[in-house]
Amino acid sequence: MDTNSYKTYSAKPSDIEKKWVLVDADGHALGRVASKVATYLRGKHKPEFTPHMDTGDNVVVINASKVKLTGNKLKQKEYFRYTGYPGGERFTSAEELLEHKPEIVMEKAIKGMLPKNKLGDKLMTNLRVYAGPVHEQEAQQPEKIEL
């Protein structure tokens, strides 16, 4: 029989090597930063990527408050939350949220680009977002990547 027989590689927990990565969001567009970070969290940049496993790296995002939103998104984009009570819908503009809690804007953008299941929830635990340039992961010696 003249056929090539290849086996699909599936990473085992012992094969996974996690690194720490630092991303500076200063002056970059929100969606561009979020898609790059989501790729690193998921592990798609690695040759041993396995869809059902956490093969990604730990990511630290700094300067989340200096991220850019193009067009009229700053005023028009709204974030929704629900208090749990009747009539408890609350809407916050991107401008207002960026001013008060810029980490949430970045986290929501990244979370929307990850799988909507238990794996996506697990991947979000590998993310640290900081509004300013100072972060608490100096001991891990994160490798800085360019966007």
Task: Describe what you observe in this structure.
- The chain has 147 residues and is an alpha/beta fold.
- The protein is 28% helix and 18% strand.
- The chain has five helices and six strands.
- Strands 5-2-1-6 form a four-stranded parallel beta sheet, with helices on one face. Strands 3-4 form a two-stranded antiparallel sheet.
- Helix 1 crosses helix 4 (102-111) and helix 3 packs across helix 4 (102-111).
- The N and C termini lie far apart (48 Å).
Beta strands, count: 6
What is the structural class? alpha/beta
**β content, as a range?**
15-25%
User: H/E series, N to C?
Assistant: EHEHEEHHHEE
Shape: globular
Separation of the first and last Cα atoms: 48 Å
Rg, rounded, reads: 18 Å
Identify the strand order in the major beta sheet. 5-2-1-6
- Please work out how many helical segments DSSP would assign: 5
Question: pLDDT below 50 for ≥5 consecutive residues: which ranges?
Answer: none
Overall pLDDT level: 94
* Main pleated sheet: 4 strands, parallel
Residue share in helix: 25-40%
